[in-house]
Amino acid sequence: MIASFSRGAGVLVCGLALAAPAAALEVKSCDEAHIGLEDLIAPAAKHSRTFKDDSISVYSVDTVEPVCCAAGVAIVMPDVSDEAGGSKCMAVVGVASIQLDEATAEEDPAKGLLITIPTRVFNDVADSAPGDPMRIRVNVDSGSATLE
Predict the structure, then answer these.
(1) What pLDDT, in 10s, does the model give residues 2-30?
(2) Closest alpha carbon to 91 in 3, 8, 26
(3) pTM value > 0.90
(4) Strands (E) located in 1-148
(5) Are 73 and 102 contacting, i.e. CB atoms less than 8 angstroms apart?
(6) CA distances from residue 95 to 62, 108, 113 in whole angstroms, order as listed
(7) What whole-number distance in Å separates Cα of residue 20 and Cα of residue 3?
(8) Beta strands 119-123; 104-108: pairing state
(9) For the chain, what is the total number of helices (H) and then of strands (E)?
(10) What is residue 45's DSSP assignment?
(11) Within 10 A of 67 (CB to CB), how many other CB atoms are there?
(12) Is 7 in contact with 33 (CB distance < 8 Å)?
């Protein structure tokens, strides 16, 4: 379950001209990234996708500010360390927008599922420009999500 947290000023710091490049992105717990239910783009059903037999849910998120880099994803997967069968939430935020509907996925049995999501980054001239795709490797067996 995604918990609700207040948005803190200065969660992300962006440059004036361009958002930080994709290399500056990092996977954090939703708690650490200050991502809660209020950050899901509504309606959530239209701005989410599931992968790997519905065991991985990916939601579009937008923290509103700063405009340059408030968008990203929340990834909900089984929490392998929870004996009760709960879920864990991981987040990647730091782009102007994402195109989750255009995401692709490739399964590697040894590494897990690689989800590639097109992004847009802030640009003074045109508000946004195509960015490097967000490439997130999700391994349900180990309960991990990493950027590639």
Answers:
(1) 443 333 323 323 332 333 343 489 999 99
(2) 26
(3) no
(4) 28-29, 48-51, 56-62, 71-78, 87-95, 97-98, 104-108, 112-117, 119-123, 127-130, 134-139, 144-147
(5) no
(6) 9, 26, 22
(7) 27
(8) unpaired
(9) 0, 12
(10) G
(11) 14
(12) no
